[in-house]
């Protein structure tokens, strides 16, 4: 579908008025049971702790086969525009510059991220979709959208639609594979044009015969800076201007531990914030999946202490029962797959952390593993040890690990990324 700016603007207007509610997917179709799980894959966060590729994140399909995640948020899209004018992708060790560059793609020292050509990830996505999993791209740029003109947001929306969803382009990272939707994980404190971008995406989705999902991943402290709702002089936030754009919310209970870290300084804040998001989701009639880490991430020490909920708390306290009393709670969204795989609390089954969540979500009376395995919980390992020779305790800010595949990233961007990582992605 070719759309002019005027056409896009018309879509935005249509989205803001009637079309949005009319053709939204049915929230109950997101998961196969009352409760389910979302997993974040692609960023290979474990590479910030481990330098050897043995511990790096395996393929998407291997997770689809071995875990209970039914929805994947993959990514991230890390730049609004690369030097070629397309949104830039970060898929860690799975697809990276320059190995996966499109022919004649210009190198970019500004953002360090590129629109990439990822055929092996594409076939994994198709295999997972064949298993009934939903695979959504997560949009979380470091850079700013640039200016506040409505066209700018709409243009980005159309590009994302063409590259990942129902549109067409010679430069689709996953070729003919069509993803199931998009997640807005906008943590760069740039509200410019997000409303227009999301309204346009929604309108494009709703105009398609195929079902697409749009999720919002705000930070836990309500209202979220970028997504809203509006607060004081923060205007034009999407959760005020077109709240029905979203099909579900995954408020991240990880970003501001002093406000809402579960086991940290402020467990009451966890519940207070979650209830506010639940109330908002209830008013919109959409499900909510609190976002939680799969690991105590030492590199994110300042920001993440206490965010991690250990397996004992999940199995042997009333946590899950309490979560289920929240009307919109439909499960959890876990970040990320690479750490989940390394965190194996159940030695009898060698099951990873996400399985503990899944079993408890499915069965309130489940009391846990027969014998405990290797759980990395706080500063000490429970039940054994990960080889310390393979551990690195400092964040990688250049050359290897976390940013190994960021391409020819400029020092400025690396420093900014390092700060973001050290700050636990606070911004
Ligand atoms: C603002 O966005 C428009 C539309 O994409 C673009 O033409 C214009 O150059 C941008 N202006 C600035 C200052 O970036
Ligand atoms: C918005 O309000 C904050 C806090 O009151 C203030 O610091 C900021 O300057 C205001 N911004 C604008 C654009 O008015
Ligand atoms: C699990 O977390 C709880 C609550 O933070 C804590 O009291 C407990 O000591 C932790 N258990 C283990 C085995 O780390
Ligand atoms: C949980 O409680 C059960 C039953 O009381 C007990 O057997 C089990 O060891 C506990 N699990 C953990 C991880 O504390
Ligand atoms: C739920 O867990 C309990 C305790 O482990 C177990 O006895 C029961 O069989 C489980 N129920 C189902 C339906 O799996």
Précis, in short:
This protein is an alpha/beta fold.
Describe the structure.
Keywords: Glycosidase, Hydrolase, Signal. It comes from Caulochytrium protostelioides. The chain is of the alpha/beta class. The chain has a single domain (27-421), classed as Glycosidases (TIM Barrel, Alpha-Beta Barrel), CATH 3.20.20.80. The chain has 14 helices and twelve strands. It has helices spanning 5-22, 60-66, 119-130, 150-164, 194-206, 238-241, 257-260, 267-284, 301-304, 311-316, 319-324, 337-342, 353-362, 411-422; strands at residues 36-41, 69-79, 88-89, 134-139, 181-184, 213-216, 248-249, 291-293, 331-335, 344-346, 372-377, 380-382. The strands form two sheets. Strands 1, 2, 3, 4, 5, 6, 7, 8 and 9 form a nine-stranded mixed sheet that branches. Strands 10-11-12 form a three-stranded antiparallel sheet. Helix 6 links the parallel strand 6 (213-216) and strand 7. Helix 1 (5-22) crosses helix 5 (194-206) and helix 4 packs across helix 5 (194-206). Residues 1-9, 11-22, 298-303 and 378-427 have low confidence and may be disordered. It binds 2-acetamido-2-deoxy-beta-D-glucopyranose (5 copies). The site of one 2-acetamido-2-deoxy-beta-D-glucopyranose has 5 residues, from helix 10.
């Amino acid at each position: 579908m070719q759309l002019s700016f005027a056409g896009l603007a018309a879509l935005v207007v249509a989205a803001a008025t009637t079309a949005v509610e009319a053709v939204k997917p049915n929230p109950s179709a997101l998961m196969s049971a009352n409760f389910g799980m979302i997993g974040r894959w692609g960023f290979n966060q474990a590479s910030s702790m481990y330098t050897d590729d043995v511990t790096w994140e395996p393929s998407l399909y291997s997770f689809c086969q071995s875990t209970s995640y039914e929805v994947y948020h993959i990514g991230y899209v890390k730049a609004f525009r690369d030097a070629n004018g397309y949104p830039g992708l970060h898929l860690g060790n799975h697809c990276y510059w320059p190995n996966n560059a499109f022919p004649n793609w210009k190198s970019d020292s500004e953002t360090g991220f590129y629109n990439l050509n990822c055929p092996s990830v594409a076939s994994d996505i198709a295999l997972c979709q064949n298993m009934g999993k939903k695979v959504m791209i997560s949009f979380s740029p470091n850079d700013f959208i640039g200016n506040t003109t409505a066209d700018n947001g709409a243009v980005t929306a159309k590009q994302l639609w063409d590259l990942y969803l129902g549109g067409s382009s010679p430069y689709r990272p996953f070729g003919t594979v069509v993803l199931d939707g998009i997640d807005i994980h906008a943590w760069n404190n740039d509200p410019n044009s997000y409303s227009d971008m999301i309204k346009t995406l929604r309108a494009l989705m709703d105009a398609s015969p195929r079902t697409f999902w749009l999720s919002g991943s705000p930070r836990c402290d309500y209202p979220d800076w970028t997504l809203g709702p509006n607060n004081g002089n923060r205007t034009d936030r999407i959760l005020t201007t077109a709240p029905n754009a979203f099909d579900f919310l995954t408020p991240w209970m990880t970003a501001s531990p002093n406000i809402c870290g579960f086991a940290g300084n402020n467990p009451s804040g966890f519940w207070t914030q979650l209830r506010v998001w639940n109330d908002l989701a209830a008013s919109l009639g959409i499900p909510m999946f609190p976002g939680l880490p799969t690991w105590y991430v030492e590199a994110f020490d300042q920001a993440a202490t206490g965010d991690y909920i250990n397996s004992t708390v999940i199995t042997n306290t009333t946590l899950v029962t309490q979560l289920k009393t929240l009307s919109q709670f439909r499960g959890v969204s876990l970040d990320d797959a690479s750490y989940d795989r390394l965190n194996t609390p159940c030695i009898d089954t060698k099951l990873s952390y996400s399985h503990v969540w899944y079993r408890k979500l499915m069965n309130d009376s489940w009391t846990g593993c027969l014998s405990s395995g290797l759980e990395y919980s706080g500063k000490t390992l429970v039940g054994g040890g990960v080889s310390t020779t393979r551990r690195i305790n400092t964040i990688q800010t250049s050359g290897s690990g976390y940013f190994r595949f960021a391409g020819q990233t400029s020092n400025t961007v690396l420093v900014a990324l390092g700060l973001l990582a050290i700050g636990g992605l606070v911004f």
